[in-house]
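CHAIN AND CONFORMATION:

***
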Amino acid sequence: MPKYLLLKHYTGGPEHHPNLVPMSEWTEDEITAHMAFQRHVWELLRKRGEFVDAQALSPEGTYVRYGGPDTAPVTDGPFPETKELAAGWFMIDVESEARAHEIAAYVSSAPGKGGQPVYEWIEVRPVMGDVAPMAE
């Protein structure tokens, strides 16, 4: 079965939905409800044998690159815009791209501000099939 990365972009995508309110403006109860929905999705995917991994990411981050053979890694940041790149992900193993899209749409319906669906863009990316896994 093909694997897909469902990459969560709270502020990314082709256009912002009018109901989009950044998580930084949600109440603690709204964040708790959102995370409970994510755990619900994880459990549904586990039961169907489609779950591989899922993680939420902190908005903080640092850019790092190779500095050369005798140099420490080069760092810069944190950059406020990094939280726009990726808020988290699901790795799924499904029968088809259509199923990956179905799951992504469901993930996009997670509750946000006021309990309303977030309507976040979920980027669906196939995992390259001819690359050996790092660890099993």
About this structure: The chain has one domain: 21-122. The chain is about 25% helix and 25% strand.
